[in-house]
Write a structure and sequence with these properties.
It holds the Pfam family Glyoxalase_6. This protein is of the alpha/beta class. The protein is built from three helices and eight strands; from the N terminus they run βαββββαβββα. It folds into two domains: about 55 residues, Signal recognition particle alu RNA binding heterodimer, srp9/1, CATH 3.30.720.120; about 55 residues, 2,3-Dihydroxybiphenyl 1,2-Dioxygenase, domain 1, CATH 3.10.180.
Length: about 130
Amino acid sequence: MLSIGTIVLTVEDIARAGEFWRAALGYVNRGEPSGDWVILDPPYKEHWDAPGASVALSVTGYPQAYPPRIHLDLYADDQAAEVTRLLALGAREVDWHGYPEDADWVVLEDTEGNRFCVVDTAADTAA
C-alpha cells in the first residue's frame, strides 16, 4: 500500500519559501536546509516515515509551469481568516475566472508561484 510521504514544491528562493510554508502550516525543518533543498514536517512527526505528509522545497532552476499540474488543497474551518493570514504571510491571490457560483475554495499562490486552494470545510458541514 502506498501513502503520500512528501510533496515537493519547486522554488527559486528557498529561504523565502521555507519561511512562508513553516508559518502557513506550522511545520518545522526536518534537518538543516541546504542551499537547494529542505524538508518540512508536521511538528509532531518524530521520524521520516511516521504519518503526516511532509513538504519539501527544491531549487531546480526550472520556471514554474502554468497552469500547474498539481496543487495543494488546504482545509480551513475559517476560510476567510486563513486567506487573510496567508496573504499577510506573502501569498498572492490568483486571478482565476473558473470559480463556479457555489465554490468552496479560493485559489492562492505562495511566494514562489506554487498554487494552492484554501477549502472551506465549514461549508461541507452545513450541507
